[in-house]
Amino acid sequence: MYGKKVKFRALFIFLILISLVLTIFLVVKSLEENVVYFKSPTDIKNLNEIKNAQKIRVGGMVKKNSIKINDKEIFFVITDFKNELLVNFNGSVPNLFEEGKGVVAEGFLKDKSFLNADKILAKHDENYMPPEVSEAMKNN
Predict the structure, then answer these.
(1) Is 35 exposed, middle or buried (0-12, 13-18, 19+ CB in 10 A)?
(2) Are residues 43 and 13 in the same domain?
(3) What is the distance between the alpha carbons of residues 133 and 104, in angstroms, rounded to a whole number?
(4) Which residue range forms the structural domain that includes residue 116?
(5) Which are the contacts of 15, defined by CB distance < 8 A and separation ≥ 6?
(6) 100/134 same-domain check
(7) Which of 35, 57, 114, 135 suits 18 as a labelling partner, its CA being 20 to 30 A distant?
(8) How far apart are the C-alpha atoms of 128 and 114, rounded to whole Å?
(9) Facing residues of 120 across strands?
(10) Strand positions, DSSP E, the chain
């Protein structure tokens, strides 16, 4: 019914489509492993289930009078003015890290009120706030 040319073109188009779908799948799968989701303390309080193996970013403001420094550990509270989250961080914090300023902490949740942070990101100047933090603050 169909000639050899038509069958060859159909096979060629089919193989290209399969290759494209496979490539997109592999790219999405590899990106999925490296994605770190941003949450506010209120979002964390509302979680149904805590995944200990999943890295998470928590953003908000450093609560006034909450920074406690022990040897190489720093404890502080991130707040979105509705809920709070205690953060533990080992290492040196950025120069712009201070109370009352915006911060994003990246790490692993122990429970809904405690985060072991691997990385602390502080804002650049007094007018800058990460877009995710400002959006979360508006929503709350």
Answers:
(1) exposed
(2) no
(3) 8
(4) 37-139
(5) none
(6) yes
(7) 35
(8) 26
(9) 105
(10) 37-39, 56-62, 68-70, 73-79, 84-90, 102-111, 114-122
Tokens of 131: 């877009």
Query: How many domains in the chain?
Result: 2
Torsion over CA: 49, 133, 83, 72 (sign): positive
Query: How do residues 62-73 score in pLDDT, each as one tens digit?
Result: 999 999 988 889
- Identify whether the C-beta of residue 85 lies closer than 8 Å to the C-beta of residue 77: yes
Under 8 Å CB-to-CB from 104, ≥6 apart: which residues?
38, 57, 58, 59, 120, 121, 130, 132, 133
Give residue-wise pLDDT tens across range 41-86.
Answer: 988 888 888 776 778 889 899 999 999 988 889 999 999 889 999 9
Same domain membership, residue 127 and residue 59: yes
Neighbours of 49 (CB within 10 A): 4
42/29 same-domain check: no
What the block records as the tokens of 90 is: 């080992």
